[in-house]
């Protein structure tokens, strides 16, 4: 069990790493857009790529933080009703919720992966830049796949913790 | 009953939306109710750039098709510099559809409707009497690399502004000029903030509405023909209405907003065209192949103004 | 399946999932997918979802979201934010000054920003942690900031008024000018809500600390950075130097420089600001895509269109038409976000309003207020989630929802005022023309 737990710990580190990649994107967007304004307003040499390039980067950026938000328990939810339920039932509902999240996350991940492969084949580019969409689908798909893996890992960890406290109490 | 979902970026206050409604009722009539068309305006099914993906994936059956790498010749042909006489617009569009049909079929598409109204991307400026071929460093909103090439060639600086920021950019003077289709310009109410138009007539610029070819082929021959007939009749029906609508918005803007509108003289136009033609000749031949490129050039020459 | 079966079923399923505690982005998607599969096979539904992932986010103006969140986090994690709120607390000797300051900041920011979510995010990410630290009640703090953001869409420029003008075909300039007086009125009413709140529930607002006076130098150090950042945003937009999105980037870069130079921001602080920004983006990413998917499924089944048609067949008296339309938007506003509502329902409903003789500029302002309420009402109320996401550990969604209720009351009173005194909206546009 312990060596599985250490692997799970590694997996759970992926959340902050993805968020870090997203953070780098935000820094690039901040600097590039500001540079674009200076070039246009001061030097009358508008940057032709900045508008579309930074918008394209926003797609992966919007999903790279999902795993981290889930780990930090920052996903908005209503717990007023489920808090009223008895503990046993609450546990089942938590498991059901995580299953729903896994199914939705899995479907979105599947969709992103298939989009990546099709974008790769068709070579469809954006309007202005000839950057392939596949470049932006890859990190997006990766973010959604890792979300599912980390969700499973987290569920495993929390179930293990619950069962170990149960055992202690019984002793 | 067969349902066809048509997706368009055009919103419901645009006269072109009435055109689609007319199209839908003609289809119902001609197929005696066997085919029904549902219209999804304002890009509710897919955005401007996602037309091909939506149609090939089955989300929409028909959609506006953006200038995409999967249809390189459609893309290059739409921007090919040519002064086109729109008197025989419907025949012109049909011949162009014919030329591009092989490329479209290869992508799994078939063109069923040409929306060649804003046949030109026109030009607007904050100031009156701008000389289009001497832009003297003016910053002009461009819609793509092709238009940018022109703006640079005439001494201006092309700028990309996202669609949702065009209004405020024009109002606050982030850009000095805008390149855009007249209909969209009017329905976005840009006349009030950037009122001086130059009508240039510089390209063909047809936006095609293509249908999923599998879906089209699954219809009976009679229903296929009914759709194409309905399309042709709709385009005839809409052309004068569209032109009146555009003229009205141009006239309103000129009268109310202190705006102005002028067309290029033939000489000015020829000079501008000559300045960009060599680049586009090469581009067209490279993307379409010599044979198709020559067909397109011949067609546009036939309908020359 | 009839449209009302789809509409009813979709909403019921959403409610069940939300009550079970499924996080909102997942609940929206999980409710939508079964109804999507009713009309699309599996492979087509994959493309639909793909279009909602891509199409929603490859949007330049949404760049303002991470940029303003980042800016706010930088202010909050350097000494700039804490200094400002120390000033609000001690420098201004009015009880509740931080709450009034937040409303003022929201209104001021609303003069450059057109989106209420961005307004709430920007001011909220600075003000919320500070208000909580100063001892303001959770509900008051969350309520003020969630509601304050909506000032951005009434005070021009405004995305909702812009889209309204495009759909309804009235002058956008007139609409913007018409929003000014109601915007100022609403700002005042929000301040009154805080006053009344303090009387009814005194422990929500900390007492003024009379012990210390702030030296002038400290006051300058507290106010100057924020003034400079605000000025750069305002001037760059108004002088045509930058678009609103570009102004967000410039302001974020400037804030970073100021925070490092005088705000004592170090590597740890920057790292946590960036991670907090990604945490907020992390749920907004899926939330916006899933929310759009939800609206897409409704539209695909023609639910909003059919609903509007059913409404039109009722053939009512003018004031009843207006009342029903307002009620309609309050209900629809619970389940859809404003931009979708505007494009889906408005084209069919506005001719009805003008056919019974109401002024469309005036109605535009009323419409915008209903859209401000829409972002504050669950289950789909973006501002609620934005504010809760800024302090997920301290504040429960319930607190935000209860906190905005009095402000929704103020919005409702503003609608009533506009019904009684249409000149509130029409005076300035008439003066201008
Ligand atoms: Na505003
Ligand atoms: Na709502």
TrEMBL record, chain A:
Keywords, ordered alphabetically: Cell inner membrane, Cell membrane, Membrane, Transmembrane, Transmembrane helix, Transport
Similarity comment text for this entry: Belongs to the TRAP transporter small permease family.
GO molecular-function term, one example from the UniProt record: transmembrane transporter activity
Entry GO CC: plasma membrane
Protein name: TRAP transporter small permease protein
InterPro entries, sorted: DctQ, MFS_trans_sf, TRAP_DctQ
Free-text function comment from the UniProt entry: Part of the tripartite ATP-independent periplasmic (TRAP) transport system.
Topology term for the membrane: Multi-pass membrane protein
Domain Tripartite ATP-independent periplasmic transporters DctQ component: 32-157
Main location: membrane
Transmembrane segments: 21-43, 49-70, 91-114, 134-153
Known partners and oligomeric status: The complex comprises the extracytoplasmic solute receptor protein and the two transmembrane proteins.
Xref: PANTHER family: 2,3-DIKETO-L-GULONATE TRAP TRANSPORTER SMALL PERMEASE PROTEIN YIAM
Localization terms from the record: Cell inner membrane
Ubl conjugation found in the keyword field: no
Claim: Zinc-finger is one of the keywords in the record: no
From TrEMBL, chain C:
InterPro entries: DctM, TRAP_DctM
Function: Part of the tripartite ATP-independent periplasmic (TRAP) transport system.
Assembly notes: The complex comprises the extracytoplasmic solute receptor protein and the two transmembrane proteins.
Subcellular location: Cell inner membrane
Principal place of residence: membrane
Recorded family membership: Belongs to the TRAP transporter large permease family.
Protein name (database record): TRAP transporter large permease protein
Residues passing through the membrane, by range: 12-39, 60-80, 100-128, 140-164, 176-200, 221-241, 247-268, 280-298, 310-332, 364-387, 399-421
GO molecular function: transmembrane transporter activity
CC annotations in GO: plasma membrane
Pfam families: DctM
Keywords: Cell inner membrane, Cell membrane, Membrane, Transmembrane, Transmembrane helix, Transport
Organism lineage string: Bacteria, Pseudomonadati, Pseudomonadota, Alphaproteobacteria, Rhodospirillales
Source organism, top-level taxon: Bacteria
Topology term for the membrane: Multi-pass membrane protein
Chain ranges of the TRAP C4-dicarboxylate transport system permease DctM subunit domain: 12-424
